[in-house]
Amino acid sequence: MDELVNQDLIAPDKAPQGGSESDPLAVKAWLAHSATTVLPRGELLETFHGQHPRTLFVKSLKARSSVLDVGAGDGALSIFRRWPRPARQDLKIYAYSLEKGQNFDDYDGYELSDWNVQKPFADRTFDAIFCSHFVEHIADPVAFITWMASKLSENGRVYIEWPSAYALTSPSNQLLAEWGFSGLTGNYFDDDTHRDPLPDRGVLEATLRKLGFDINASGIVSMPLFEDELLAYSRHAGDRVALQFAYWLKTRWCQYLVATLG
């Protein structure tokens, strides 16, 4: 196990060369264009979230699974237990974060601490661990994955989502604000809590395999239909969250992986 906790394994993803995904002029033109939509507005958010990799992960867990939400933020995962369909009230979901989020009382339990000082839930294991936008904030993602393996039951599953290399070259918050789109998370380095280098997906996958995991799915969060759909919806409803999701999809900002402990 000691060989896994090796800083040489935390090699940076290289920023992509070429392409329009994060080219400032292309992104600016896309934000300003008249998006054509095909989905009914009333169904859009449910359809989008229902097809997102993170929601599919939760909805497809085995019956009565226990789930740990690491870096739980405001506690949005508790909402996805009941929405969109199918409702998964059979799941037991627990949160871990530095501070209590607004929806934490909807979890089956939660613990608060600084990851670098005290690890959570010392006395139990889980059937699944969900980790969205956490690994880019910690000093040693490899050590975190090793810890995850120790907290999973037999055939336990993990979902990890974090920024991709495209986020390194996407337009900055300052540039987006100049275009009239303030309040978005634009570029990886706009958040001073993000670690440099960006955790490399290949390194994380190699670490998981060494720990006995099978990689079930891995790649960029790509949902082309919803780029324009969410952009148009954000204009109609004044929904900044929908605009953020649209921007992340268009710029290929997020990556993810799903793995099962063999």
From TrEMBL:
Signal peptide limits: none
CDD domains for the chain: AdoMet_MTases
Annotated GO biological process: methylation
GO molecular function, one term: methyltransferase activity
Stretches the record annotates as Disordered: 1-22
Keyword Methyltransferase included in the entry's annotation: yes
UniProt keyword list: Methyltransferase, Transferase
One Pfam family matching this protein: Methyltransf_23
Protein's recorded name: Class I SAM-dependent methyltransferase
Species annotation: Dyella soli
